[in-house]
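Dear colleagues,

As part of the handover before I leave the project, I'm documenting each prediction I ran so the next person doesn't have to rerun anything. This entry is a single chain, and its sequence is reproduced below.
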Amino acid sequence: MGEQAALERVAEPVTVDSLVAELRDLGVEAGETLLVHSSLSALGWVAGDAQAVVDALRRAVTEEGTLVMPTHTPQYTDPADWSNPPVPDDWIETIRRERPAYHPRRTPTRGMGAIPECFRAYPDVRRSAHPIFSFAAWGAGAAAVVGDHGFAYGMGEGSPLARVYERDGDVLLLGVGHDVNTSLHLAEYRADIGAAGVTREAPVLRDGERVVETFEDIETSTGDFATVGGAFEDQRPEAVTRDTVGAAGARLVDQPSLVDFAVDWFERHRTGDGGN
């Protein structure tokens, strides 16, 4: 979205103060654990861009709470699987061999948006060690949420998603839909759907040296996330609050309720190979 379109979406600039007030109206509470998925462009014209949104979220949650965002790095998936766009076959081994090791402080997110990319760079934010499915967190529970993120089954029981679940956290969908709601991945891991296993590898640092780690995972799919999210909202309206933040539609979702619902939904609707 261009600057002119962003200006036309709001009657006045979106500010840190206005965002905090609207987040409060939505139901975001001081001291809570909040997992955020966001679109900066959906908010309209923001005075201070992504930094203003991060500052507003931090103020709304407060230091007694915990703010969490996905900071994934799909540039560390297998380049042989890339399709948007694919790379030439004779590039694949060079990419695998030459890409630098994942570093929680240095490595940029990819495809996650401006807000989590800004958030992960704050000096008091912690980021997990997973080279593909990292999360960043700030606040009282940051270390507990991201400090022990195992490589194997990276969005399952050893992930920050499961820690948010244990803390009875909420998901904030800020200008985005359930199609990007990573908490639904936790439901995929928990559901008995016969998901296919996969072996992943990625370069990480060990004692200052680049090494390639190999770890097990499952094949996941986001193709039905919007459908299951819509079904949840229809059947569990008490677990979802809707309002407008800036120019964006926003939803505050009870994460454990969503995950439990999605486990059952996946078991009833997905085929045995984990597809839709």
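The chain has one domain: 3-269. Residues 272-276 have pLDDT under 50 and may be disordered.

All the best with the project,
I.
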